[in-house]
Amino acid sequence: MRSFNPPSIEAAPFPLEIQSHFKDHLWTNSLFSDASLIPMYSLDRLVVPRHGNYFISQTLNNESTLSQMAFYQPSSKRSPRLGELLCLSSLAYGVSGHANTLHGGVAAVLFDEVIGVLAALTLGHERLYTAILTTKYKKPVPAARNAVLCRSWVDEERSQGRKVWVHAILEDGTGTVMCEGESLYIEVDNMAKL
Hints:
This protein is an alpha+beta fold. It has helices spanning 16-21, 29-33, 54-59, 104-123; strands at residues 37-40, 69-74, 84-91, 128-137, 146-154, 163-171, 177-187. It has 4 helices and 7 strands, in the order H-H-E-H-E-E-H-E-E-E-E.
């Protein structure tokens, strides 16, 4: 069984731009004011030369798709789960499949992104690849001008060595689960071995 040591993350409030973006969704205020949640940032939302992940940093980073993603790591006092990460995401019309309904592929992308960030935190680096990603759709996810919360956590029992299993759920502001996900990430030391 793997010993998980997620890195400590310094607490810092989110910029007012992010907080004001979500202000119409009253349930999100409790996340921004919860002292037991540590705000953090993902490089995947920034355009960094030679970093890759242009799909998240450019294609899905505009006002008509996923304009904001706010990541939180619960403090150890709040969460009994080892290796947990929350992501508040803003959805817009550009991620719709059916009218005002999140495209199923975008739900899988959200899981892959949030689970991948948690796997990278868990293993301590970014040389990871998705080996398995399963998404179960429970309810339609409203897309236009909506906010959703993705909760992800490491499955310590199944994770070992260079393999990390992570579970996730996508929920609305009332805690209604709309999608469930599970993923296996594999740590790769040498790209030539792929």
